[in-house]
Each structure stands twice: as structure tokens, then as C-alpha cells.
Amino acid sequence: MYFMAKVIIKNLNDKAVDLSSCSRSLLHCLLESGLDWMHACGGKGRCTTCKVQIIEGMEQLSPFSHAELKYRQQQQLNNDERLSCQLIVKGDVVLHVPKESQLPHITYSK
């Protein structure tokens, strides 16, 4: 199945990542594209270090996983946040890397 999906990361100077050939989690696709992305638990949904804030395109994402629902219930994920290791992108999305998920060796824009 062929689909077109692009992720724009606003606070990485509007970095565009083409996900057309990636059908795995957003985290996996970002890492595969060469981006460094925080994921302390190895992408297993056991922490919230890989979280992203969705600016546009929440409807283009897979439903919330069990892990995401648990973290939302514990108020560790806001309504506009998702775990990149738990979601599949199905269409264009614009996101922001929250301060607590930023890596120290990367310069983020505002």
C-alpha cells in the first residue's frame, strides 16, 4: 500500500521528513531518516521521553495506545501530545518537540 505522509517539525527549523516508505512508529521513521530522537526506554512505551506535541494533523494519527491512555490518565501526556514510539502516521502532520523531550546536543528553534 502506497501513501504520502510528511512530518514537519516546527522547532527544528521546519524540518520536513518524508514518511512515504515507512509504515512503523513515528519514532522508528524519524530514527530511520537520520534524526536523533530521545527514547530512553528504547521505544517500548514505558516512559514519555519521546513525546511530541501535535500542532496539526491529530486526525492523521493511529488511535491512542494503551500506554498513551495510561500516561494521559496519569496527566503525563497533554491532550495535544503523543508518544512517537506508539503512533503510526497516516497523513501529513506538524509537530513540536517539547522542552523535556529535547536532546542537549541539538539546537532547537522557537
Provide structural commentary.
There is one protein chain. The chain is of the alpha+beta class and 110 residues long. The protein has one domain: Ubiquitin-like (UB roll) (Roll). It is built from 2 helices and 5 strands, in the order ββαβαββ. Strands 2-1-5-3-4 form a 5-stranded mixed beta sheet, with no helix packed on it. β1 and β2 form a beta hairpin. The radius of gyration is 13 Å and the shape is globular. It starts with 5 loop residues before the first strand and ends in a 14-residue tail after the last strand. The relative contact order is 0.28.
Characteristic terms for this protein:
5 strands; 14% helix; five-stranded mixed sheet; globular; alpha+beta
Task: Give the uncertain stretches in residue-range form.
Answer: none
The largest sheet is: 5 strands, mixed
Total count of strands = 5
Give the spatial strand order of the biggest sheet: 2-1-5-3-4
Question: Radius of gyration over alpha carbons?
Answer: 13 Å
CATH C-level class: Alpha Beta
Secondary-structure-derived class: alpha+beta
What is the CATH topology classification name?
Ubiquitin-like (UB roll)
| CATH architecture title | Roll
Helix content: 10-25%
Mean pLDDT: 94
- How much of the residues is beta strand, in percent? 15-25%
CATH superfamily placement: Beta-grasp domain
InterPro entries: 2Fe-2S_ferredoxin-like_sf, 2Fe-2S_ferredoxin-type, Beta-grasp_dom_sf
Domain 2Fe-2S ferredoxin-type: 5-101
Keywords: FAD, Flavoprotein
Pfam families: Fer2
